[in-house]
Amino acid sequence: AQPVILAQTRAGVRTLTLNRPDRLNAANDALLLTLTEELRLADADPAVRVVVITGAGRGFCAGQDLGDVSGRDMTFTEHLRATYNPLIRAIRGLSKPVITAVNGVAAGAGASLALSGDIRLWAGSASLIEVFSNIALVPDSGSTWFLPRLVGYHRAFELMALAGRVGAQDGLRLGLCEHVYPDERFADEVQAYAERLAARPANALKLTKQALNFALTTTLDQALDREAELQQLAGDHWEHEEGVRAFKEKRAPEFVRE
Ligand code: T3D
């Protein structure tokens, strides 16, 4: 059988490809658990500086595989806690930047996955649908947390209630992605972007991700305190010394050491 996740590393970029193209990469348990495990491995691998999650074929991820739901021996709550929730936590907690490279339609939990990246890059033919209400379910896998923070409560509610399809230009306008690239150049543009990120100071980016994630759920006072703590960890790291030395020597800093 075909592996449900394809994995390859190039120039410090680990690309994890959802690989059920004939189902628009709809997620079964094997795909969810394998992706989560691959993220854990990427986090532990010093050769990996950036992780890309993308889809094979014309879809990114059509959400839960609806062929797998009936006859399941888990409740919805148990299933979410065992599969989707650990995946989204793994992405948000990863010590390296995660790019979600949305090559096509992202629906349901696939939309949540698309939104969960630190950087979201979309192909021109990408789209996002909070499709859950079409099958009378509640948005899950973090959509209720991500989407209102991006577009506000009211737009989020409308997108969820009517399950409208957001195309790439609207996705960019609404802040659901950082960049849109033409389909024919998408894979190359994603790799080039990821390599640019991989050349940045990894320790500083890890701490930046921690600081932002903390700040999203806290007060200014607490965020200021956490910044002061994390700044110590950044300032004590060799990357900081290299950055300052490079500035004084009027050269580009070298943040990648074997
Ligand atoms: O614990 C729990 O289980 C709860 C968790 C819930 C999380 C969720 O994600 S709930 C939402 C589940 N997803 C959906 O409801 C989406 C269903 N799919 C669609 O609405 C459409 O396929 C799309 C809008 C995503 C794309 O439409 P289109 O016209 O581009 O493609 P298509 O023809 O509908 O799909 C192509 C094939 O993929 C087709 O198979 P076929 O006819 O060629 O053999 C279709 O059945 C299959 N497919 C698409 N989505 C799913 C799927 N098969 C299984 N599960 C899917 N989600």
UniProtKB/TrEMBL annotation:
InterPro entries: ClpP/crotonase-like_dom_sf, Enoyl-CoA_hydra/iso, Enoyl-CoA_hydra_C. Pfam families: ECH_1 (PF00378). CDD domains: crotonase-like. Belongs to the enoyl-CoA hydratase/isomerase family. This is Enoyl-CoA hydratase. It comes from Deinococcus aetherius.
